[in-house]
């Protein structure tokens, strides 16, 4: 292919500039088209994979590496991570592993560019065009775009190389390269600026590889530029975190400081770094081989990741010290319900809403616990705590309900539509549990204000009933969160037992009245029992929503619940 282009040797400044800029434009278009098409082929499942496969730091690194190799863009991976953290689907500590893995995964692009594929570029380009023209099916069409983009970036690189050859002999260009060799920090700034403009470290490193292959820049000058490219790629994540939660901002800062740390460390040992790859080049690769830059890139990101993993807890503390989290739960919830996901990834929008419903359920559980504590201690702070929690529950109910209503059913699968309905039902059940808990503490407060004595049998029965209810609420939350059918069935069985318990205590109350021992306990006792029994009914509703979809859609889910 180089022979083909050499027919059009540039003979004046305008021709040189035109060819370089044209080649650069084609290269950037090719790498962007390839990355975007790969993201389309991967689909929303990619985001779900990142969200669920980050249990440990090592899993996060592995996930980030694999995903970035698939979509050929570390910037895209880090933006996905920022979005997931902002939506509450991933923690800051989980996200940092994926980001480090993304830095390793992005090195595959430089490696591919370093391979001698350019002579096949026109053939690959033709295959891509044929697929684009003759196949309308979306996934096959996206594959055609990927192939076309892959070939276009190599054609662009060859065009750039053709224009750079005469430039490399010009005195001003040699002076710039000499200055970068003499002042490594200048090279870092050039790499940072170039990547900030292109929003792609793969693109800027590809340009660097092409310049290096012409002999226009020495390895000593090229490596600082390479280091700067890694800093420049953090700009995308920083921009995407501007409107995100503070935890997402922490992740973006980690990405920045991770690459700054690696750059500073390698600048300190720049001579050894240069010597290592000068030896590698002369011994294995050959002078001015694009693979030299690729392997230097892999080495930098891998070593930096290993070092940061070993000192990760100090990195995390440093980031949290610079940007501490706020404790305002109301603001955090609004941020977690990321409305961008409603269109871009309805599956993750449902998962984000589910997280909010679980959090709301835990508030309802805490309200029941506060009610029991207030009953036994007669401390107003527990009464106030219950009312404060009810305000949070109402706020959650309003926000999550409105969020779920914005999810259009045509954007959801059959499974997604059922999940949406289950979330709406469960949301209402937790809200009603909270309301009944408020009713109960208000009955307790009335008893205290009326100086009603707690008779031993009354106290024992109420405490026993409250214990059963607290356990049932806890199990209802757990089965909703995990989709565990055995726990769901336990909740349903508990509901029928609690119904029997309520009837038993009512009969005992009537027996007390019949014996002539009538006091204010009897006035409140029936209402307290009724509210406790209603809480049990709502727990039963939550568990039934876990069980029923499982059996109704057994073939679709292949044994999994809709909330797995």
Explain what you see:
83% of the residues lie in helices and 0% in strands. The protein is mostly helical and 564 residues long. The chain folds into two domains: 12-322, no CATH class; 332-557, Methane Monooxygenase Hydroxylase, Chain G, domain 1 (Up-down Bundle). α12 (201-213) crosses α17 (290-310). The chain has helices at 2-6, 13-42, 45-52, 57-71, 74-86, 92-105, 107-114, 121-134, 138-167, 171-182, 184-198, 201-213, 219-232, 234-240, 246-268, 270-285, 290-310, 312-322, 329-336, 341-344, 346-377, 380-405, 414-449, 456-482, 485-514, 520-552, 554-557.
How many structurally independent domains? 2
Element-level helix/strand string: HHHHHHHHHHHHHHHHHHHHHHHHHHH
Tertiary shape: elongated
The SS-based structural class is mainly alpha
Put simply, the count of helices is 27
Give unreliable regions as ranges. Answer: 550-564
Q: Which features would summarize this protein structure in a list?
A:
564 residues; Methane Monooxygenase Hydroxylase, Chain G, domain 1; 2 domains; 83% helix; disordered C terminus
């Amino acid at each position: 292919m180089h022979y083909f282009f050499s027919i059009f040797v540039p003979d004046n400044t305008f021709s040189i500039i035109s060819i370089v800029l044209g080649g650069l434009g084609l290269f950037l278009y090719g790498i962007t088209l390839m990355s975007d098409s790969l993201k389309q082929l991967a689909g929303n499942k990619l985001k779900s994979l990142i969200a669920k496969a980050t249990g440990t730091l090592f899993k996060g690194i592995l996930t980030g590496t694999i995903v970035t190799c698939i979509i050929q863009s570390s910037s895209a991976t880090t933006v996905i991570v920022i979005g997931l953290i902002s939506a509450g689907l991933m923690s800051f500590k989980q996200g940092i592993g994926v980001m480090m893995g993304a830095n390793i995964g992005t090195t595959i692009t430089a490696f591919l560019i370093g391979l001698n594929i350019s002579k096949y570029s026109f053939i690959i380009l033709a295959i891509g065009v044929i697929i684009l023209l003759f196949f309308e099916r979306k996934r096959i069409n996206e594959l055609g775009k990927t192939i076309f983009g892959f070939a276009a970036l190599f054609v662009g690189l060859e065009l750039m190389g053709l224009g750079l050859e005469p430039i490399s002999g010009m005195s001003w260009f040699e002076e710039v390269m000499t200055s970068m060799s003499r002042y490594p920090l200048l090279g870092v700034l050039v790499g940072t600026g170039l990547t900030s403009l292109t929003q792609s470290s793969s693109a800027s490193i590809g340009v660097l590889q092409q310049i290096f292959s012409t002999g226009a820049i020495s390895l000593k000058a090229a490596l600082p530029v390479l280091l700067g490219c890694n800093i420049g790629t953090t700009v995308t994540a920083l921009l995407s975190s501007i409107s995100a939660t503070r935890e997402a901002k922490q992740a973006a800062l980690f990405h920045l400081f991770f690459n700054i740390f690696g750059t500073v460390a390698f600048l300190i040992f720049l001579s050894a770094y240069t010597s290592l790859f000068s030896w590698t080049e002369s011994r294995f690769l050959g002078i001015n081989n694009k693979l030299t830059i690729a392997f230097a890139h892999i080495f930098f990101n891998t070593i930096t990741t290993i070092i940061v993993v070993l000192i990760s807890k100090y990195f995390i503390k440093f980031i949290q010290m610079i940007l501490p989290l706020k404790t305002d739960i109301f603001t955090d919830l609004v941020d977690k319900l990321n409305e961008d996901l409603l269109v871009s990834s309805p599956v993750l929008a449902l998962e984000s809403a589910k997280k909010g419903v679980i959090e709301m359920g835990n508030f309802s559980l805490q309200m029941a616990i506060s009610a029991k504590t207030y009953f036994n201690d007669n401390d107003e702070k527990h009464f106030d705590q219950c009312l404060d929690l009810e305000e949070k529950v109402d706020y959650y109910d309003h926000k999550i309900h409105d969020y779920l209503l914005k999810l259009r059913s045509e954007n959801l699968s059959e499974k997604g539509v059922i999940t949406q309905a289950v979330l709406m039902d469960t949301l209402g059940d937790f809200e009603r549990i909270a309301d009944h808990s408020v009713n109960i503490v208000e009955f307790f407060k009335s008893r205290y204000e009326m100086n009603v004595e707690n008779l031993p049998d009354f106290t024992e029965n109420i405490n026993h009933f409250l214990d059963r209810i607290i356990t049932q609420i806890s199990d209802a939350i757990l089965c909703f969160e995990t989709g565990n059918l055995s726990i769901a069935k336990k909740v349903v069985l508990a509901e029928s037992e609690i119904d029997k318990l309520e009837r038993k205590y009512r009969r005992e109350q009537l027996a007390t009245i019949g014996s002539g021992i009538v006091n204010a306990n009897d006035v409140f006792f029936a209402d307290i029992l009724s509210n406790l029994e209603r809480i049990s009914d709502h727990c039963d509703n939550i568990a039934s929503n876990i069980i029923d979809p499982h059996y109704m859609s057994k073939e679709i889910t292949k044994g999994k619940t809709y909330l797995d």
